[in-house]
Amino acid sequence: MSRDANSHASGSNEASKKKLILEAARALAKPRYTPAEIEQIRRKLIAGLGAQGRTSVDYIVSVLQDAGLRVVMSTKSDTEGLYEEEFSDLLHFSTLDEAEMCLIRLDELLRKFTTEGERAASERVREVAQLGRRRAEMIARNHKVDARKRAEKEEIAQWFGIWLATPGAFFDWLEVRKQSAEFQSRFPPEPEEEA
Length: 195
Hints:
With 195 residues, the protein is mostly helical. It has helices at 3-7, 10-28, 35-49, 57-66, 84-87, 96-115, 119-140, 147-165, 167-179, 181-186. The chain folds into two domains: 3-66, no CATH class; 84-182, no CATH class. The radius of gyration is 19 Å and the shape is flat.
C-alpha cells in the first residue's frame, strides 16, 4: 500500500505522523533539537504526507519530548548542559496545583540565575515558561480533551503568560485570582478522598 493510500485513514494519520517525526529525528541524530531541526522535521512531514503532513511546531516538540528527546527552542543560546538538573522535569503540570509548583520552581530559578548574573540560564528559564504556556494553550484548544481539563489548561496558560510579563507581581496576583468568585465557581475544590 502506498503512503498516500495509508495517509487517507484518519486514525492511522496521527500514528504515521508521530512515526515520521521520530524517524526524521533519529535520522538527524542530534543531541538536542533546536528550531532548525524542528523545521527540517516539519518539512519532511509535508514531503512524506503532502497536505496532511502539515503540523504545528508545538506538536512536533511534544512528540519529541514524549519520546525522551531533548528539545531546545532557543535561537539565542543553550546553556550547554550547565544547569540540566534544574531544568529537567520542570514542565509536568496536569493540575492547577502542579502548575503553581512549576511556576514557583521557575521563579526560584529565574531569581537565582538573575542574582548570579547567568543571563543564558535566565533566558532559558523564560523559554521553558514560554514552552509551558504553549503546551497549555495547545491542550486547551484540543476538543478531544475533557472540558474541565481544557478549562484548567486555559487557566494555566494565563498564569504562565502573566508570570512571563510580571514575575515580581505574579504570586500576589495568583493569591487574589484564586480567591475570586469566578475562579472558585470555575474550579471548585475537589472532595478529598478518605484513606
